[in-house]
Amino acid sequence: MTIPFSPKQRMLRLLKMLAIGYVAICVLLFIFQRKLIYFPVEDSGAAPGASAFSELEDHTLRGWVLNPAAKNAILYYGGNGEAIEGNLSSFQNLWPNHAIFLFAYRGYGGSEGSPSEEGLYEDALAIFDKANEKFDKVSLVGRSLGSGVATYVAANRKAHKLILITPFDSITAIAQQQYPILPVKYLLLDRYDSLGRVPEIDEKTLIVMAEKDQIVPRKNSDRLASAFKKEQLEVVIVPGAGHNDISYYKPFHAALKAFL
Questions:
Q1: Is-contact 194 151, C-beta < 8 A?
Q2: pLDDT-derived band at 104, boundaries 50, 70, 90
């Protein structure tokens, strides 16, 4: 004979199942979080004449270099899932008098290794230090995920100027908004806290936002912008642009060219 559960027992049983499910979701999010953050793209084989390699301590990065004989340089940190070599033609037109370096992150575009916040920072500093030895001035351009890398370099090195395209305040803030019932701040390994680094950034900075950004909510970009000193910052909002197509709009190119 089966003894029926009382209402209280049924409720406790339900709560126990929900708690187990909640913990299981948290564990899965912790284990697979980097697969949710990073979206590596393959090497497209484009622009082989501009291709370059940077030998770092224990791995090699694949990249592309324009105008290597110029006096001043620009280091570009790409967006997630972006084939950065696709910018070669437009960057050549924008900055014909600058050496332009585009290196794929670890695990992206033919570069060795696996992506992580610590690893991307380590590589970015190493490449900056190499460029800083050769060029008079080195400026930084970071798009989306790359904006988090660019702010780290700007906070830890002295660059000439800083451009942040469709930037966020932190990955933690973005993730918490996407998963509001989960304790994201305790689970994330890679945080990209650009907002927390702003007090350490002295470079003249341009922030370019997309009016219709579907990936980075406007409030996150605004929060980052509001942390800069007013005299230090210029903000441009590209009308009609989205997160992924902002570079198709003329005001985007005009803003970058005028600033740098």
A1: yes
A2: very high
The CATH number of residue 203's host domain is 3.40.50.1820
Convert the pLDDT of each residue in 51-86 to its tens digit.
Answer: 777 888 789 999 999 999 999 999 999 999 899 999
Rounded to whole angstroms, the Cα distance separating 230 from 198 reads 12
Q: In the predicted model, is pLDDT for residue 127 greater than 70?
A: yes
The total domain count for the chain is: 2
Q: What are phi and psi of 138, to 5 degrees?
A: -125, 120
- Full-model pTM: 0.92
> β-pairing, 98-103 with 60-66?
antiparallel
Gap between the Cα atoms of 215 and 66, Å rounded: 30
> With the CA atoms of 233, 158, 169 and 142 taken in that order, what torsion angle do they form, in degrees rounded to the nearest 10?
90
Same domain, 23 and 132: no
Residue 105 in contact with residue 133, Cβ under 8 Å?
no
Q: Looking at the predicted structure, is the pLDDT value of residue 165 above 60?
A: yes
Structure tokens, 254: 């005009």
Q: 140 is in which domain, residue-wise?
A: 46-259
The answer to whether 199 and 243 are in contact (CB under 8 A) is no
